[in-house]
Amino acid sequence: MADIYASHVKRTTVYLDETSYQRLKGLARRKGCAPAMLVREAVSEYAARHAPPHAPKSLGAFKSGRKDLSARAEDLLGDFGRSR
């Protein structure tokens, strides 16, 4: 199991001041987990909150070959989607 786990995580070193380290250990003890798990969780949440928004994968997936498509969308679509 250790080999499977090791292939999914990267090792790093984090230096904490004594107060933060003791708080981390106390939180981990109360939650019944390893301090490293709390650090991974905190980094994951921080990265998600501060990551730039990503564009949908479908954005720009198709090329129409037309340079005026967005400017003429209403004309090109005509009555498409309207009730008859």
Characteristics of this structure?
84 residues, Arc Repressor Mutant, 48% helix, elongated
Structural account:
The chain is mainly α. The longest helix has 16 residues, at about 35-50. The protein has a domain at about 1-50: Met repressor-like (Arc Repressor Mutant). It is elongated, with a radius of gyration of 25 Å. The mean pLDDT is about 85. Helix 2 crosses helix 3 (about 35-50). The protein starts with a helix and ends in a 7-residue tail after the last helix. About 50% of the residues lie in helices and about 0% in strands.
Reported by name, the CATH topology of one domain is: Arc Repressor Mutant
The CATH H-level homologous superfamily of one domain: Met repressor-like
CATH class of one domain equals Mainly Alpha
Looking at the structure, what is the overall shape?
elongated
Please give the radius of gyration in angstroms: 25 Å
Q: Runs with pLDDT <50, length 5+? A: none
What oligomeric state do these chains adopt? single chain
Structure class: mainly alpha
CATH architecture title of one domain? Orthogonal Bundle
Residue-averaged pLDDT: 85
Instruction: Give the termini distance in whole angstroms.
Output: 63 Å
Instruction: Spell the H/E element sequence.
Output: HHHH
Counting DSSP H or I runs of 4 or more residues, the number of helices is 4
> Which range does the strand content fall in?
under 5%
Number of strands: 0
